[in-house]
Each structure stands twice: as structure tokens, then as C-alpha cells.
Amino acid sequence: MNLWTLINERELGQKIEEDNSKINENTNVGLRCYIKYLKNDKKLNKTQIRNEIDRLMMENYKGFVMGDWDETLQGMVNKYSKKKYCEYKNYNNEVVLFKEELNFIKNVGGLSGVKDIEIEKILFIMLVLAKSSGSEWVNYSSRDIFKLSRFKYRQKSDIQAVQREKLIYDLAHYTNGQILNVTNFGTSPSIKLLFCKDEGIEEIKIKIDIKSIENIVVEYLRWRSKEEYTYCVECGKEIKIKSNRQQYCSKCFKILRKDYKKNKQREYRGEIVDN
User: Fold this and answer.
1) Are 105 and 127 in contact (CB under 8 A)?
2) What is the pLDDT of residues 238-259, one digit of tens each?
3) E-assigned strands of 99-234?
4) Where are the domains of the chain?
């Protein structure tokens, strides 16, 4: 998984200048970085930046329709050309989640016949990814989002991609769009979280890196107190704690147990031979 939230903003802006097609890879993050690059390195004013962004999108972004993007582009240019927001951000990969945000997620409820906790895990992952990028936008593929949430797909149902797209669509239209907005539906949607806040009561503070992001959903499960959770030291899968000594999921435990018995049998046969 490519962790876009650990990017070098100036470097990405420069890469987009050199290869305009890169704006298709992670559009909202790319736009933010390119606007900052045009402001800081190219010294363009707001009108010049907007003109360059329009050119970039019209000539390179697949399926670009100005009517769908005009408001979003103007908002981004207005924000990231300001002195307060145009500085390149040096991420320390520390994310602060507020009590109001987490309570909102907890109270969303089930959708599309999906269990509440599965919806909650997806929204939690979206929140973490958005905050780690310093915005309210989530710019990851639906596959990555659902993988990080360890979403439990319905077995005898639509293929996984269809399940993902349907669920994101339902979230976007839930209670008249109070949860999120989606710019592009499909395998790589651009998602804006409407419950993401800039300030509030600090509830969870977590550090993210390429390794920890794989098990970050455990933080929500612990906070949610559905049960006490940890993750397997062998494969990283989240597991319910049944004892203080538990370290492995059932699958890894069986494999390790089997290996342990084999080794013991070899030792035993070795002792017999020695005698």
C-alpha cells in the first residue's frame, strides 16, 4: 500500500510539474501539493495558480468535467494560496482524533445490511487517513480503505468491488449527505468527510507509519470497548483477548503448535538414537 500521507509535499508538486499525468494518481493530494508548489517555488498569484490548475486538469485528468470540479478547485486555490496554509507541511505522522468525531462514528448505525461495527471501522480508517494528510479528504482506493478496516465481506453476495462501491454510495447519501461527499464514485473515489473537525476534545492520539497503519483499526476497537483487542504478533490480524498470555490468532497458533510438536518429536527421536 502506498501511504500518501507520508509524502514530501514540495517533491510531489515538482514531480507533477515534470509529469502532468501524475495528477491522476492521487488527485486531491496532488492538487494541494501542486498549488503550494506554484505559490512557493513559482511565485504565482492566485489568478495565475487557478489558470494553471485549470490547464492541468483539462489536459491531463481523465474524465474531467469543469462543472463537477469548479467549486472544489476554487476552494483549494483560495485556501492553499494563503500564507496560513501554503507552507509545505512537515508531517510527524501523529494524528489526533476528537471525542466528537469518534462519537459520531459510533452512532452512525448499520447500512446496506452491514453490521454497525463494520461501518464504524471504515469511517474510522477514513478519518485517520484524512487527518494524516492534514485535510478532510480521503484519497485512497476503496480497496485499501476496506483492507485497513479489516472489513468482513458478505460471503454469498456481490463481488467485493461491488460491495465496496455500494457501501460508499450509501454513506454518501445517508441522512441527506451528513457523513461524506464523494467526487468520483468507483474504485478510487475522492471522499470528503463532513464530520472531520479541526478542534475538539482530544480522545485518541496515535502515531502512524507504514507498519502501524496495517493494524490501526485496533485502536478504534479498543476505544469502542466492544471487547478488548490486540493483534497477532505473527501476522498482524486483530484478535480478541481471552487471556493475558494471548499473542497469536487461532490460525497462527495452530501452525506454531504444529511446528512445536514436530520439533519435540525430532528431539525425542534424537534422544532414542543417542541411547
Assistant:
1) yes
2) 677 777 777 788 888 888 888 8
3) 137-138, 180-182, 191-193, 202-207, 229-231
4) 4-80, 94-222, 228-275
Q: Answer yes or no: are the C-beta atoms of 209 and 215 closer than 8 Å.
A: no
Q: What is the dihedral of CA 239, 100, 193, 91, to 10 degrees?
A: -70
Count of alpha carbons within 13 Å of 127, Cβ hemisphere only? 31
How far from 169 is each of 92, 114, 183, 190, CA to CA, in Å?
32, 13, 11, 12
Question: Which residues have C-beta within 8 Å of that of residue 114, sequence separation ≥ 6?
Answer: 154, 167
Beta bridge partners of 111: 114
Give the span between the Cα atoms of 163 and 272, in whole angstroms: 58
Provide the sign of the torsion angle of the four alpha carbons 196, 199, 202, 204, taken in this order. positive
Nearest to 121 by CA among 236, 234, 6, 222: 222
202-207 and 229-231 strand pairing: unpaired
Predicted model pTM:
0.59
User: Coil, helix or strand for 221?
Assistant: helix
- Say how far apart CA 83 and CA 65 lie, in whole Å: 29
- Predicted confidence (pLDDT) per residue in 143-153, tens digit: 889 999 989 88
Evaluate the CA torsion angle 171, 173, 174, 175 in order and state its sign: positive
CA dihedral over 154, 156, 157, 161, signed as positive or negative? positive
Segments of the chain assigned E as strands = 94-98, 137-138, 180-182, 191-193, 202-207, 229-231, 238-240
Residue 257 C-alpha from the chain's centroid: 35
